[in-house]
Structure formats: structure tokens, C-alpha cells
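Entry 14. Structure prediction run on the chain below.
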Amino acid sequence: MLRTIDELLELIKDKAYLDSEKIIKAYNFADELHKGQLRRSGDPYITHPLSVAEIVVELQLDTDSVCAALLHDTVEDCSDKMDNILLKIKKIFGNDVADIVDGITKLIHITLTTRKKKT
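Output returned:
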């Protein structure tokens, strides 16, 4: 589990297809909004988005996906700190990142059910 931006940068240093500057910008945006938020463990909340970004990098997804991983909880968890977060994400990081973040946010509201096979 990644705990710092430096660890994420170390993970991506040999991946020329990733834009580290854009990823740092997304991290800084998310870190600022999550400042003061803690996980149940007492760890800073930003460790969760870093862990999600690590998974996205391991899946060899693109820069926008890594940025969205870092930003994915800001819309729901930080609305008290900034208005129109999704709109700001769109302005700063582009439509693709905003669309991914928006899609992830909507996934939270889907109720999953299973059908049991009758025997």
C-alpha cells in the first residue's frame, strides 16, 4: 500500500506513457481537499486514493485513469470544502478525468443484488 506521492512517483518513474506532472497535480488537488480527514485506522485519508492509484498503475491504465483514482473521493467526501468539485476537476484535468470521477461517484449509488439459483 502506497503512503506518499513519492512512492507513487517511484512506481511510475519507468512508465513513459504516464504524465507524472499531471499525476502530481491531481495528487496535490486531492491531498488539499482531504486535508484533516482520517481513515478509521487513523491514517491520513489520502492513503486510500494513493492505494487506488497504485492498482490503476499496476493495471497499466493511462494518466487520466491514475488522476481519476487520486480524485475519486473528492466529489462526495469534500463538498464542504469546495463548491462544484466535479466542474473544477473538468476545468483543471479535462473531460475524460471528470467523466471517470463522475462515473465512479455514481457507482456508489448502485444497489447490487444477486439471484440465487433455485434447486
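DSSP finds seven helices and no strands in the chain.
Filed with the rest of this week's runs.
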